[in-house]
Design a protein that fits this description.
The protein is built from eight helices and no strands. By secondary structure, the protein is an all-alpha fold.
């Protein structure tokens, strides 16, 4: 027999909390009600709730301050070192479009590359990374990594790959069934039995 999804309140067991899929909005509502910080991504919020349910303690999110580089007075060039928060998004985008072309747009990977390499790499490195990413996207064997907190996206992709003759509507139907029961939210062949 399938276990019903419980109500997310302070009485929920840690195991029940872990066993079910929760929307970020549900997690935030729980945090607000219980005085828990809801700053950050879904994984961080989930971990704070688990700690609260296990110990009753409310932990504050860790804040890391990045070293700010001085505001430059010169225009961007390919030799300019990537800085932290000193250039507007628009200014960076316009510069990179002037080098790469109108097809340029920021991707999650490129934004992460900016963050990870502030103070270390140049805009020339950004251009090279953009071209590297585009080349990968054109490789038919390339599978873009989806961050673990995007369970829905991972499920839909895996379902579609495993069931090429089924529709996206089918994938969404099985996702809704899967997330309503206890257990992980990863696609498996057994999911096709959920509506029987």
């Amino acid at each position: 027999m399938k276990k019903e999804k419980p109500i997310l309140d302070e009485k929920i067991s840690v195991q029940d909390f872990k066993d079910f899929y929760w929307l970020k909005d549900e997690l935030i509502k729980f945090c607000r009600k219980n005085g828990i910080s809801y700053v950050g991504g879904k994984i961080e919020i989930t971990n704070r709730i688990i700690e609260y349910l296990e110990t009753g303690k409310i932990t504050k999110p860790k804040t890391t301050r990045q070293k700010r580089l001085p505001k430059p007075t010169k225009p961007l060039t390919l030799e300019t070192i990537i800085g932290v928060d000193y250039r507007s998004y628009k200014e960076k985008k316009e510069f990179l479009r002037s080098i790469i072309g109108k097809q340029f747009h920021f991707t999650i990977h490129l934004l992460d590359f900016f963050k990870q390499n502030a103070g270390k790499k140049t805009y020339g490195d950004i251009v090279a990374e953009w071209h590297k990413e585009q080349k990968l996207k054109n490789d038919p064997n390339f599978v873009k990594e989806i961050a673990p907190q995007f369970e829905y996206n991972n499920y839909i992709r895996d379902f579609t790959k495993a069931n090429p003759n089924m529709t996206r509507k089918d994938a969404i139907k099985y996702w809704k069934l899967k997330k309503s029961i206890a257990g992980d939210n990863k696609y498996s062949e057994e999911d096709l039995e959920l509506d029987r």
